[in-house]
Sequence to fold (96 residues):
Amino acid sequence: MSDLIDTRYHYDAVEDKLTVQRIQDVEPIIEANKRAANDASSNWRGDMHHVASIPLVVLEHYRNRLGIDLLKDGAALKRFLNDPENAFMRTKRGRI
Fold:
């Protein structure tokens, strides 16, 4: 699984504007999540469960563009992980 993030800088001389682009190959993470979800038991007994692996660029996007720090806001993280559109980041099925 690659957590490496490529950072690219783009300068627009006309507008004197610098844009930072962060790129990460998330396919290995998504594939690992699918395998883990398929292998995970449906049992929710106990205190600790690995329920997701979220690519770093997704966490950065939510924090920098949307102002939501999923690592510090437990309620936002729960909503995020229970959203069917984010199912590809889950490693265990069910509601959190």
